C-alpha cells in the first residue's frame, strides 16, 4: 500500500521537545520498543529515552524506510509486533539525511522512489503556500513530513493496526538534530487543530 501523497504533503503537525520519560521503562530485559532509524543518524537510541538497552529492538537502514517492500524491514516489524509484542514503534528520522537530499532515484536503485516524489510535492506545496523558506528549512520540512508518512504507513499495516486496536500499541515519529544533539517529537494535529498527544 503506497503513501497517500496528497495527504502526506498536507500534514499539519507540531514539533515538541522529547521528554526522555515519554515511554516508561519496564525494568525488564525484554524489548518493548521497535526503533526504526537511519543507518547514518548517529543517534543513540538508548540515550534518547530513559529505558534499558534491552527494552529497544533496533532496525536501521538507509533513510529509516519501512514502506518500500524491503524484506528486512518487513521482517523486523513482523518480529517485533507479532512475536515480541512491543508496546511502541518509534520511527526516527534526522535532519541532513543523505537519502532525503538525493533527488536522483536512479542513484539509489529505487530505494528512494517515494522520497523523490515527496521532494517535488514539498517544493510545490511551499511555493503555493507563499512561505519564504531557505534550503535548510525546506529540507527539514521534507524530513519531518517523510518521517510522519512512514509512521502513518506503519500504523495502517494489518498486524500493526490490530496491535493498536487490541493491545494499545503506540506509534511515534521522532526527528534527531545532529547540530544541537537533540531529538524532538512530531505530533500530528487533530481535526480541530490541536496536537494528538
UniProtKB/TrEMBL annotation:
Known catalytic reactions: hydrogencarbonate + H(+) = CO2 + H2O
Q: Which SUPFAM superfamilies match?
A: beta-carbonic anhydrase, cab
Question: Origin organism of this chain?
Answer: Lachnellula suecica
Q: Which key words are in the record?
A: Lyase, Metal-binding, Zinc
Q: Which domain of life is it from?
A: Eukaryota
Please report which protein family the annotation says this sequence is part of.
Answer: Belongs to the beta-class carbonic anhydrase family.
Q: What is this protein called?
A: Carbonic anhydrase
Cofactor(s) this protein cannot do without: Zn(2+)
Question: What Gene Ontology cellular-component terms does the record carry?
Answer: cytoplasm
Amino acid at each position: 500500500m503506497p503513501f497517500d501523497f496528497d495527504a502526506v504533503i498536507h500534514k499539519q503537525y507540531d514539533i515538541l521537545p522529547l521528554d526522555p520519560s515519554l515511554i516508561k521503562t519496564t525494568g525488564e530485559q525484554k524489548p518493548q520498543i521497535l526503533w526504526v532509524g537511519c543507518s547514518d543518524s548517529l543517534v543513540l537510541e538508548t540515550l534518547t529515552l530513559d529505558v534499558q538497552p534491552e527494552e529497544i529492538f533496533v532496525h536501521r537502514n538507509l533513510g529509516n524506510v519501512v514502506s518500500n517492500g524491503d524484506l528486512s524491514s518487513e521482517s523486523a516489524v513482523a518480529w517485533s509486533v507479532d512475536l515480541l509484542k512491543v508496546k511502541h514503534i518509534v520511527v526516527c528520522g534526522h535532519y541532513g539525511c543523505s537519502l532525503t537530499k538525493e533527488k536522483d532515484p536512479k542513484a539509489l536503485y529505487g530505494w528512494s522512489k517515494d522520497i523523490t516524489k515527496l521532494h517535488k510535492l514539498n517544493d510545490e506545496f511551499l511555493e503555493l503556500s507563499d512561505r519564504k523558506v531557505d534550503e535548510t528549512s525546506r529540507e527539514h520540512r521534507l524530513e519531518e513530513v517523510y518521517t510522519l508518512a512512514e509512521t502513518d504507513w506503519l500504523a495502517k499495516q494489518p498486524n500493526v493496526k490490530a496491535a493498536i486496536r487490541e493491545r494499545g500499541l503506540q506509534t511515534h515519529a521522532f526527528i534527531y538534530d545532529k547540530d544541537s544533539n537533540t531529538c524532538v517529537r512530531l505530533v500530528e494535529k487533530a481535526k480541530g487543530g490541536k496536537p494528538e498527544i
